[in-house]
Write a structure and sequence with these properties.
alpha/beta, single chain, 2 domains, 15% strand, Rossmann fold, 13 helices
Protein backbone atom coordinates (compact mmCIF):
# COMPACT_ATOMS: atom_id res chain seq x y z
CA UNK A 1 0.00 0.00 0.00
CA UNK A 2 1.41 3.38 -1.00
CA UNK A 3 1.81 5.85 1.89
CA UNK A 4 -0.25 9.04 1.82
CA UNK A 5 2.92 11.13 1.58
CA UNK A 6 6.64 10.76 1.34
CA UNK A 7 8.65 12.44 4.11
CA UNK A 8 11.41 13.32 1.65
CA UNK A 9 8.92 15.27 -0.45
CA UNK A 10 7.24 17.04 2.45
CA UNK A 11 8.03 20.78 2.15
CA UNK A 12 7.93 21.27 5.94
CA UNK A 13 10.39 18.46 6.59
CA UNK A 14 12.57 19.66 3.71
CA UNK A 15 12.65 23.22 5.02
CA UNK A 16 13.36 22.01 8.55
CA UNK A 17 16.21 19.84 7.28
CA UNK A 18 17.70 22.56 5.07
CA UNK A 19 18.09 24.84 8.09
CA UNK A 20 19.28 21.96 10.32
CA UNK A 21 16.53 22.15 12.94
CA UNK A 22 16.18 19.56 15.69
CA UNK A 23 12.44 19.75 16.31
CA UNK A 24 9.22 21.57 15.39
CA UNK A 25 6.07 21.41 17.49
CA UNK A 26 2.78 22.49 15.90
CA UNK A 27 0.25 23.57 18.52
CA UNK A 28 -3.52 23.85 18.05
CA UNK A 29 -6.41 24.21 20.48
CA UNK A 30 -9.91 24.94 19.20
CA UNK A 31 -11.31 25.90 22.58
CA UNK A 32 -8.89 28.79 23.13
CA UNK A 33 -8.20 29.58 19.46
CA UNK A 34 -4.50 28.88 19.90
CA UNK A 35 -2.46 28.22 16.78
CA UNK A 36 1.28 28.22 17.41
CA UNK A 37 4.57 26.79 16.22
CA UNK A 38 7.59 26.12 18.44
CA UNK A 39 10.90 25.54 16.64
CA UNK A 40 14.00 24.16 18.35
CA UNK A 41 17.02 24.70 16.14
CA UNK A 42 19.96 23.46 18.20
CA UNK A 43 20.69 22.45 21.81
CA UNK A 44 24.42 21.73 21.58
CA UNK A 45 25.38 24.43 24.08
CA UNK A 46 22.30 24.17 26.30
CA UNK A 47 18.50 24.35 26.28
CA UNK A 48 16.98 26.35 23.44
CA UNK A 49 15.98 29.82 24.58
CA UNK A 50 14.04 32.31 22.51
CA UNK A 51 10.96 34.48 22.80
CA UNK A 52 7.40 33.93 21.68
CA UNK A 53 6.06 36.28 19.01
CA UNK A 54 2.34 36.91 18.43
CA UNK A 55 1.61 38.13 14.92
CA UNK A 56 -1.28 38.08 12.48
CA UNK A 57 0.50 36.14 9.71
CA UNK A 58 -1.13 35.90 6.30
CA UNK A 59 -0.87 32.10 6.38
CA UNK A 60 0.73 29.19 8.22
CA UNK A 61 3.65 28.89 5.79
CA UNK A 62 4.62 32.50 6.45
CA UNK A 63 4.55 31.76 10.18
CA UNK A 64 6.63 28.62 9.70
CA UNK A 65 9.28 30.43 7.68
CA UNK A 66 9.46 33.15 10.33
CA UNK A 67 9.84 30.77 13.26
CA UNK A 68 12.49 28.70 11.46
CA UNK A 69 14.61 31.75 10.63
CA UNK A 70 14.13 33.27 14.08
CA UNK A 71 15.05 30.08 15.93
CA UNK A 72 18.20 29.58 13.87
CA UNK A 73 19.10 33.19 14.60
CA UNK A 74 18.75 32.47 18.32
CA UNK A 75 21.29 29.64 18.05
CA UNK A 76 23.81 32.02 16.48
CA UNK A 77 22.89 34.84 18.85
CA UNK A 78 23.42 32.74 21.97
CA UNK A 79 26.62 31.18 20.68
CA UNK A 80 28.29 34.41 19.54
CA UNK A 81 27.41 35.94 22.93
CA UNK A 82 29.12 33.05 24.78
CA UNK A 83 25.92 31.95 26.48
CA UNK A 84 25.34 28.31 27.48
CA UNK A 85 22.11 28.17 25.51
CA UNK A 86 20.80 26.73 22.28
CA UNK A 87 18.38 28.39 19.89
CA UNK A 88 14.61 28.21 19.74
CA UNK A 89 11.62 30.42 19.02
CA UNK A 90 7.84 30.30 19.05
CA UNK A 91 5.14 32.13 17.12
CA UNK A 92 1.47 32.41 18.02
CA UNK A 93 -0.66 33.11 14.96
CA UNK A 94 -3.23 35.81 15.71
CA UNK A 95 -3.99 39.44 16.44
CA UNK A 96 -2.24 40.45 19.65
CA UNK A 97 -4.73 43.28 20.17
CA UNK A 98 -7.89 41.18 20.08
CA UNK A 99 -7.07 37.50 20.68
CA UNK A 100 -5.14 37.44 23.93
CA UNK A 101 -6.63 35.57 26.88
CA UNK A 102 -5.42 33.79 29.98
CA UNK A 103 -6.78 30.50 28.64
CA UNK A 104 -4.84 30.85 25.38
CA UNK A 105 -1.51 31.58 27.08
CA UNK A 106 -1.99 28.86 29.68
CA UNK A 107 -2.69 26.35 26.91
CA UNK A 108 0.45 27.52 25.15
CA UNK A 109 2.32 27.08 28.44
CA UNK A 110 1.28 23.43 28.55
CA UNK A 111 2.73 22.92 25.07
CA UNK A 112 6.00 24.53 26.21
CA UNK A 113 6.01 22.29 29.28
CA UNK A 114 5.61 19.20 27.10
CA UNK A 115 9.10 19.84 25.74
CA UNK A 116 10.55 19.06 29.18
CA UNK A 117 12.94 21.99 29.38
CA UNK A 118 14.39 21.70 25.89
CA UNK A 119 12.78 25.07 25.14
CA UNK A 120 12.68 28.11 27.42
CA UNK A 121 10.37 30.92 26.31
CA UNK A 122 10.13 34.67 26.94
CA UNK A 123 8.27 37.66 25.53
CA UNK A 124 8.80 38.96 22.01
CA UNK A 125 6.86 41.08 19.49
CA UNK A 126 3.19 41.29 20.45
CA UNK A 127 3.78 39.74 23.87
CA UNK A 128 4.29 41.43 27.24
CA UNK A 129 5.90 40.21 30.49
CA UNK A 130 2.39 40.06 32.01
CA UNK A 131 1.35 37.61 29.26
CA UNK A 132 4.27 35.43 30.31
CA UNK A 133 2.82 35.27 33.83
CA UNK A 134 -0.09 33.27 32.41
CA UNK A 135 2.36 30.99 30.59
CA UNK A 136 4.31 30.50 33.83
CA UNK A 137 1.20 29.08 35.54
CA UNK A 138 1.65 25.98 33.38
CA UNK A 139 5.43 25.71 33.05
CA UNK A 140 8.62 26.71 34.82
CA UNK A 141 10.40 27.06 31.49
CA UNK A 142 9.74 30.77 31.03
CA UNK A 143 11.84 33.89 31.75
CA UNK A 144 11.35 37.64 31.55
CA UNK A 145 8.71 37.68 34.27
CA UNK A 146 7.80 40.83 36.20
CA UNK A 147 9.85 41.12 39.37
CA UNK A 148 12.68 39.09 37.86
CA UNK A 149 14.69 40.10 34.79
CA UNK A 150 11.49 41.62 33.37
CA UNK A 151 11.19 43.34 30.02
CA UNK A 152 14.40 42.71 28.03
CA UNK A 153 13.79 45.70 25.73
CA UNK A 154 16.04 48.19 27.58
CA UNK A 155 18.97 45.77 27.45
CA UNK A 156 18.33 44.96 23.79
CA UNK A 157 18.30 48.67 22.98
CA UNK A 158 21.50 49.32 24.93
CA UNK A 159 23.34 46.53 23.13
CA UNK A 160 22.09 47.82 19.78
CA UNK A 161 23.29 51.30 20.70
CA UNK A 162 26.74 49.85 21.47
CA UNK A 163 26.76 48.08 18.09
CA UNK A 164 25.84 51.28 16.27
CA UNK A 165 28.72 53.08 17.95
CA UNK A 166 31.12 50.30 16.91
CA UNK A 167 30.03 50.63 13.28
CA UNK A 168 30.46 54.41 13.46
CA UNK A 169 33.99 53.93 14.79
CA UNK A 170 34.88 51.82 11.75
CA UNK A 171 33.21 54.04 9.18
CA UNK A 172 33.98 57.50 10.58
CA UNK A 173 37.00 56.92 12.84
CA UNK A 174 35.02 57.95 15.92
CA UNK A 175 32.08 56.43 17.76
CA UNK A 176 30.71 59.84 18.69
CA UNK A 177 27.18 59.98 17.26
CA UNK A 178 26.57 63.69 17.89
CA UNK A 179 25.19 65.24 14.71
CA UNK A 180 24.79 61.93 12.89
CA UNK A 181 21.53 61.47 11.00
CA UNK A 182 20.02 58.22 12.26
CA UNK A 183 16.67 56.74 11.24
CA UNK A 184 15.00 54.35 13.68
CA UNK A 185 12.31 52.37 11.89
CA UNK A 186 9.90 50.95 14.46
CA UNK A 187 9.65 52.73 17.81
CA UNK A 188 8.00 50.10 19.95
CA UNK A 189 9.63 48.95 23.17
CA UNK A 190 13.18 48.49 21.84
CA UNK A 191 13.05 51.30 19.28
CA UNK A 192 11.94 53.90 21.80
CA UNK A 193 14.73 53.02 24.23
CA UNK A 194 17.20 53.24 21.34
CA UNK A 195 15.87 56.67 20.38
CA UNK A 196 16.47 57.79 23.96
CA UNK A 197 20.13 56.70 23.86
CA UNK A 198 20.74 58.32 20.48
CA UNK A 199 19.01 61.56 21.41
CA UNK A 200 20.99 61.91 24.62
CA UNK A 201 24.20 61.68 22.61
CA UNK A 202 23.08 64.47 20.29
CA UNK A 203 22.28 62.49 17.16
CA UNK A 204 19.73 63.89 14.72
CA UNK A 205 17.09 61.17 15.07
CA UNK A 206 14.34 60.41 12.57
CA UNK A 207 11.61 57.91 13.38
CA UNK A 208 8.95 55.96 11.50
CA UNK A 209 6.33 53.49 12.67
CA UNK A 210 3.03 51.99 11.52
CA UNK A 211 1.33 53.68 14.49
CA UNK A 212 1.05 57.45 13.99
CA UNK A 213 0.22 58.11 17.63
CA UNK A 214 3.42 56.34 18.72
CA UNK A 215 5.48 58.43 16.30
CA UNK A 216 3.95 61.63 17.67
CA UNK A 217 4.54 60.69 21.29
CA UNK A 218 8.14 59.48 20.83
CA UNK A 219 9.02 62.48 18.63
CA UNK A 220 7.70 64.89 21.23
CA UNK A 221 9.36 63.09 24.15
CA UNK A 222 12.87 62.88 22.67
CA UNK A 223 12.97 65.68 20.11
CA UNK A 224 13.04 63.26 17.17
CA UNK A 225 11.56 63.96 13.73
CA UNK A 226 8.73 61.75 12.50
CA UNK A 227 8.65 60.79 8.82
CA UNK A 228 6.17 58.89 6.66
CA UNK A 229 6.76 55.18 6.10
CA UNK A 230 7.07 55.61 2.34
CA UNK A 231 9.94 58.06 2.90
CA UNK A 232 12.08 55.70 4.99
CA UNK A 233 14.38 54.20 2.39
CA UNK A 234 15.02 57.33 0.39
CA UNK A 235 15.99 59.46 3.39
CA UNK A 236 19.46 60.96 3.20
CA UNK A 237 20.94 59.53 6.42
CA UNK A 238 24.15 58.24 7.96
CA UNK A 239 22.72 55.23 9.78
CA UNK A 240 19.59 53.16 9.16
CA UNK A 241 18.39 51.30 12.27
CA UNK A 242 15.58 48.84 11.47
CA UNK A 243 13.82 47.96 14.73
CA UNK A 244 10.49 46.57 13.52
CA UNK A 245 9.91 43.31 11.66
CA UNK A 246 12.46 41.71 9.34
CA UNK A 247 13.06 41.65 5.61
CA UNK A 248 13.42 45.42 5.15
CA UNK A 249 16.68 44.98 3.22
CA UNK A 250 15.41 43.58 -0.07
CA UNK A 251 15.41 44.03 -3.85
CA UNK A 252 12.98 46.93 -3.64
CA UNK A 253 14.56 48.90 -0.81
CA UNK A 254 18.28 48.40 -1.51
CA UNK A 255 18.47 50.68 -4.57
CA UNK A 256 16.83 53.46 -2.54
CA UNK A 257 19.03 53.28 0.55
CA UNK A 258 21.10 56.40 1.22
CA UNK A 259 23.15 55.43 4.25
CA UNK A 260 26.63 54.30 5.24
CA UNK A 261 25.57 51.89 7.99
CA UNK A 262 22.70 49.46 8.62
CA UNK A 263 22.55 48.61 12.31
CA UNK A 264 19.31 47.94 14.15
CA UNK A 265 17.49 45.63 16.55
CA UNK A 266 15.11 43.86 14.14
CA UNK A 267 15.55 40.15 13.47
CA UNK A 268 16.10 38.76 9.95
CA UNK A 269 16.76 42.15 8.37
CA UNK A 270 18.08 40.67 5.13
CA UNK A 271 15.24 39.55 2.87
CA UNK A 272 17.46 36.89 1.24
CA UNK A 273 20.56 36.53 3.37
CA UNK A 274 23.26 35.73 0.84
CA UNK A 275 22.04 38.00 -1.96
CA UNK A 276 21.27 41.05 0.12
CA UNK A 277 24.23 40.66 2.47
CA UNK A 278 26.52 40.63 -0.56
CA UNK A 279 24.69 43.60 -2.09
CA UNK A 280 25.25 45.72 1.03
CA UNK A 281 28.97 44.90 0.96
CA UNK A 282 29.23 45.76 -2.74
CA UNK A 283 27.51 49.10 -2.12
CA UNK A 284 29.96 49.94 0.66
CA UNK A 285 27.30 49.86 3.37
CA UNK A 286 28.42 48.47 6.73
CA UNK A 287 25.97 45.90 8.10
CA UNK A 288 25.82 44.83 11.75
CA UNK A 289 24.39 41.27 11.67
CA UNK A 290 21.07 41.32 13.47
CA UNK A 291 21.63 38.30 15.73
CA UNK A 292 24.88 39.78 17.00
CA UNK A 293 23.80 43.37 17.60
CA UNK A 294 20.42 42.62 19.20
CA UNK A 295 21.68 39.99 21.67
CA UNK A 296 21.02 42.18 24.71
CA UNK A 297 17.55 40.71 25.17
CA UNK A 298 18.71 37.11 25.40
CA UNK A 299 21.60 38.19 27.63
CA UNK A 300 18.98 39.66 29.93
CA UNK A 301 17.00 36.38 29.87
CA UNK A 302 20.15 34.35 30.51
CA UNK A 303 20.84 36.44 33.60
CA UNK A 304 17.47 35.31 34.97
CA UNK A 305 18.13 31.65 34.13
CA UNK A 306 21.48 31.78 35.94
CA UNK A 307 20.39 34.08 38.77
CA UNK A 308 22.75 36.88 37.71
CA UNK A 309 22.23 40.59 38.36
CA UNK A 310 20.86 43.26 36.04
CA UNK A 311 24.27 44.94 36.32
CA UNK A 312 25.86 41.78 34.91
CA UNK A 313 23.39 41.83 31.99
CA UNK A 314 24.18 45.46 31.14
CA UNK A 315 27.91 44.85 31.40
CA UNK A 316 27.67 41.80 29.16
CA UNK A 317 25.59 43.77 26.64
CA UNK A 318 28.24 46.46 26.52
CA UNK A 319 30.56 43.80 25.05
CA UNK A 320 28.40 43.86 21.91
CA UNK A 321 30.50 46.90 20.91
CA UNK A 322 33.60 44.69 20.58
CA UNK A 323 31.68 41.81 18.97
CA UNK A 324 30.28 44.03 16.23
CA UNK A 325 33.59 45.84 15.78
CA UNK A 326 35.40 42.52 15.24
CA UNK A 327 32.75 41.17 12.82
CA UNK A 328 32.50 44.27 10.67
CA UNK A 329 36.27 44.84 10.67
CA UNK A 330 36.83 41.28 9.39
CA UNK A 331 34.11 41.77 6.78
CA UNK A 332 35.79 44.93 5.49
CA UNK A 333 39.25 43.35 5.49
CA UNK A 334 38.28 40.00 3.95
CA UNK A 335 35.56 41.41 1.64
CA UNK A 336 33.11 38.80 2.93
CA UNK A 337 29.55 39.80 3.94
CA UNK A 338 29.38 40.44 7.65
CA UNK A 339 26.51 38.01 8.31
CA UNK A 340 28.66 35.18 6.94
CA UNK A 341 31.56 36.21 9.17
CA UNK A 342 29.23 36.27 12.18
CA UNK A 343 27.68 32.89 11.37
CA UNK A 344 31.11 31.29 11.04
CA UNK A 345 32.18 32.75 14.38
CA UNK A 346 29.04 31.37 16.03
CA UNK A 347 29.43 27.95 14.41
CA UNK A 348 33.03 27.77 15.65
CA UNK A 349 31.82 28.35 19.19
CA UNK A 350 29.14 25.69 18.82
CA UNK A 351 31.60 23.17 17.40
CA UNK A 352 34.32 23.85 19.94
CA UNK A 353 32.17 24.54 23.00
CA UNK A 354 32.13 27.77 24.99
CA UNK A 355 35.46 29.32 25.85
CA UNK A 356 35.96 29.16 29.59
Amino acid sequence: MKPEFELSNNPVIAQMSSMDHDQILFCSDNQTGLKAIIAIHDTTLGPALGGTRMWNYDNELEALNDVLRLSRGMTYKNAISDLALGGGKAVIIGDSKTMKSEALFRRFGRFVNSLAGNYITAEDVGISPSDMVWVSKETDHVVGLPGKSGDPSPVTAFGTYMGIKACAKIRYGTDDLAGRKILVQGVGHVGEYLVEHLSKEGAEVFIADIHDDTVSRVAQTYGAKGIELDSVYGLDMDIYAPCALGGTINDTTLPKLKCAIVAGAANNQLGVEDRHGKALLERGILYAPDFAINAGGVINCFSEVEGLSSEWAMGKSEEIYHTIYNIVSRSEKERVPSHIIAMKMAEEKINNGLKK
